[in-house]
Write a structure and sequence with these properties.
The strands form two sheets. A six-stranded mixed β-sheet has the order 6-7-8-3-9-10, sandwiched between helices. A four-stranded antiparallel β-sheet has the order 2-1-4-5, covered by helices on one side. The protein is an alpha/beta fold. It contains seven helices and ten strands. The protein is about 35% helix and about 25% strand.
């Protein structure tokens, strides 16, 4: 499905958070959104997820207006937001209850995604028994189990330590390569955006708007060592300069 935003704006009373957002995300694309605090990154994601209505403009999937949450859009927050009283497998299966799938098919899908995220041996564990990175893997598996057309990620690795974060970045990119799911990710980490995305969208501030789009011209295979290359440093510097140039002056 093609995700399209046309002249999207969002206001809360007299506060204009987003203004004139035009953005298209093609099927199977990995796009990261970056910007300084106050640029409306998370607000934009909430409009796409259907958690809040746009004040003006349109948000569509394959031409159909987004009017609320739906199974074609999976959403993962920074906290993971797992159900503490459900096992790993039960958390992953939770959304599948709403789909017309036979029980055996639901079980097979849960098993496949737990194997994909490397947590099948922990299927019976509770969230409190997992590390932060493992909990985020479960949250991503839960979102993917419903096989959404678009996976929306809001700062999913922001609370993790550096090593776990890098592991999760490599994991997420591999999942994207394996599944072909469209990914739209909000992050404050420019290095993360350049490592993961095919294209980086830079939002300006006051109100939030698309200030620039930067194609990431790096190989499809991106081990962590790629961050030491001149090409990576140049792209990161370009995006950092654009973020800095479009920060609020208030």
């Amino acid at each position: 499905m093609t995700l399209a935003l046309r002249d999207v704006g969002k206001e809360y009373g007299r506060l204009r958070v987003l203004d004139g957002i035009d953005l298209t995300v093609a099927p199977g694309e990995f796009v990261c959104i970056v910007g300084a605090s106050g640029s409306g990154k998370s607000t934009l994601l909430s409009l796409i997820a259907g958690l809040a209505p746009a004040t003006r403009g349109t948000v569509t999937l394959d031409g159909e207006p987004v009017t609320g949450p739906g199974p074609e859009r999976g959403l993962v927050f920074q906290s993971g937001a797992l159900f503490p009283f459900l096992t790993v497998a039960e958390n992953v299966a939770f959304g599948l209850r709403l789909l017309p799938l036979p029980r055996a098919d639901r079980a097979a899908r849960v098993e496949w995604y737990l194997r994909e995220v490397g947590l099948l041996p922990l299927a019976g564990a509770l969230p409190k028994e997992l590390s932060g990175g493992q909990r985020q893997r479960v949250a991503i598996a839960r979102a993917l189990a419903c096989e959404p057309s678009v996976l929306l990620l809001d700062e999913p690795f922001g609370a993790l330590d550096v090593q776990t974060k890098e592991d999760m970045q490599l994991f997420l990119r591999q999942v994207w390569l394996d599944t072909g799911t469209t990914v739209l990710m909000v992050t404050h980490d420019v290095e993360e955006a350049v490592l993961l995305a095919q294209r980086v969208i830079v939002l300006g501030c006051d109100p939030g708007r698309v200030a620039a789009e930067v194609p990431v011209t790096l190989p499809a295979e991106r081990p962590l060592e790629i961050k030491r290359t001149a090409g990576f440093h140049a792209l990161r510097s370009t995006v950092e300069d654009l973020v800095r140039a479009n920060m609020s002056t208030r």
